[in-house]
Design goal:
The protein has 306 residues and is of the alpha/beta class. It contains twelve helices and seven strands. The protein is globular, with a radius of gyration of 20 Å.
Length: 306
């Protein structure tokens, strides 16, 4: 089984507008699919830096002197690229979310398939997994988490059920993905059990890994990292991410509010390359079901860039 099948492969590489001697960043190296595609289009002088904080990605590193894997979260891209002597780059690619490998590894706790430890950490160095998060959060905090990150209807019912289960289970907590599903399944709407559980798992995963915070940091860093004309390509998988990316590419800030100069001219730092988000075609959706929820947006750092 492949570690991960890259989504929107050709469209992402085309979006980067790859230059043979350019310097690029693959923020989510994973199985290395997009990275290998980038390397195929680079010349001898080109450079590619991959970020991935999951040690399972290390065996996928290509034997290529033009590639460097940085085993850190992409939110720290600016600092770690500076250590490599890189101040600015020609393109940044981020294929967000969870890799196929992480979903398929039951012991990681990402998927509703199978039973494993309730962990969900992309970076095993993080101090707290999903079980610890659930145990320390109040009912109100869990309600907010499920509402904001999972977009669950009646999120308070899920929070209440978890707090009740923790009181019953004592120090052992929820413990496993199987136990979490047992607690939450009775709350799922008829015929929508898997969707309901997937939304709950998504909410916990986002919180454990601070995924929206990391994306926010990356987007802000792109203002400094991208050369004028440099491309920002982001593939997202749920509305929370896509909304952030859309607003940022529109205005250069997370609020989506475009600043203007004295004469009323836009000071937005990006030019849109894609109008609406690009989506996979029917053939790719059939071949790779994960692509069904993918939304890709592309923007270019405009010539106003410092």
């Amino acid at each position: 089984m492949n570690y991960h099948v890259p989504v929107l492969f050709d469209a992402a590489l085309d979006g980067l507008d790859l230059q043979p001697a350019g310097t690029y960043v693959d923020c989510t190296f994973g199985g290395g699919g997009h990275s290998r595609g980038i390397l195929d289009r680079l010349g001898p002088e080109g450079r590619l830096f991959g970020f991935d904080c999951d040690p399972d990605a290390v065996p996928n590193v290509p034997e290529d002197d033009r590639f460097t894997l940085i085993q850190e979260n992409f939110r720290f891209a600016t600092n770690f690229l500076r250590i490599q002597g890189v101040q600015q780059v020609d393109g940044i690619l981020a294929d967000l979310g969870v890799s196929s490998h992480q979903f398929d590894a039951a012991e990681r706790g990402f998927s509703i398939r199978g039973d494993g430890a309730l962990d969900m950490r992309m970076d095993p160095r993080l101090p707290e997994g999903a079980d610890g998060l659930i145990q320390r959060m109040s009912e109100q905090e869990l309600t907010t988490l499920f509402r904001q990150y999972g977009e669950l209807n009646q999120a308070h019912r899920a929070a209440r059920a978890l707090r009740k289960a923790i009181e019953q289970d004592g120090a052992e907590g929820i413990g496993s993905t199987g136990r979490l599903q047992t607690v939450l399944s009775p709350l799922a709407p008829p015929n929508k059990r898997n969707q309901y559980l997937a939304q709950a798992f998504q909410a916990l995963r986002i919180a454990v890994n601070d995924e929206l915070g990391a994306l926010s940091d990356l987007l802000k860093a792109s203002l400094r990292l991208l050369k004028p004309g440099g491309r920002l390509v982001v593939i997202s998988y749920h509305s929370l991410e896509d909304r952030m990316v859309k607003r940022f590419m529109r205005a250069g800030n997370l609020e989506g509010e475009i600043a203007k100069d004295f004469h009323g001219r836009s000071l937005a730092p990006f030019d849109k390359v894609t109008g609406k988000a690009l989506v996979a075609d029917a053939e790719e959706m059939e071949r790779n079901p994960r692509s069904r929820s993918a939304r890709m947006r592309v923007a270019a750092r405009n010539t106003q860039a410092a």
